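Q: I'm writing a short explainer about ABC transporter, ATP-binding protein, putative for a general audience and would like to include a description of its predicted shape. Could you first generate the structure from this sequence?
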Amino acid sequence: MTAILEINDLRKVYADGFKALKGVSLEIEEGEIIALLGPNGAGKTTLISTVCGITQASGGTVCVGGFDIKKDFRAARSMIGLVPQEVNLEPFERVINTVRFSRGLFGKAKDDEKVEAILRQLSLWEKRDNQIRELSGGMKRRVLIAKALSHEPRLLFLDEPTAGVDVELRKDMWEIVAGLKASGVTIVLTTHYIEEAEAIADRVGVIAKGELLLIEEKSELMKRMGQKQLQVQLTQRLESIPASLATYNLSLAPDGCSLTYTYDTRGERTGITSLLADVSAAGLVLRDVVTRQSSLEDIFVDLVHREEEAEA
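A: Of course. Here's the predicted structure. Afterward I'll give you a sentence or two in plain language.
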């Protein structure tokens, strides 16, 4: 597939010496959904702002659809749609006029059929004559997406699109993103919500302190870094882990009624068979056994923690 976005050694250093981006390199193919995860201050918004030309890079290159954002800014920027975190809309303007105006800003000819198609896609057509101030928070977010799509971009950035919205609206937004992908739009999503990345992304990137720690297929990431946990639930409460089980590095639940064993799914042997035999030999009676696959949240927290330890 063809790369729609090519970022090479992108750096951003502010006047006070703060390094917001530290040599980020990334390629995104057409039709992908990429989720960028990272804590506040990780560099997610700075990365998007730099690609969109809002912030000037200190070094490195960015090409969108083959156009360099410095040498061919207008051509590159015309291929990008941006949905910012903040809902900053003219409250007394009507929905349809807001979208038409954004299309005109990019020099696109008037096309009411295209505007209607976008509004219908985002379930805004019935609200087209409403003033922005009359809309709910979720509908205002939809208007932001409609504005970003008005000039028919090939690459769409969604910067924390579901921040501050309830769970129902968040899932509704996921459906919108899936629909946009189906229509051929490439999407880069920044989020704090791990479940968002798990639900809709093809690849997941983790950013911390201006560095891209990894970018990988979601399924491969789970397979490569995922661990499983075996929880052994007991019929009687333990005060401490028996000495005969010390080699398994078990953890005892606060209530003393279960033991947790963590193992690598990639290992040739899990050690579960010998563990259960030794649990029985220690005189412990099992009530139940439950397994749990580690989530992206576990992986994300572990990566960021390791990065912090490396800098300590």
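A: For your explainer, you could say: The chain has a mean pLDDT of 88.
Q: Perfect, that's easy to follow.
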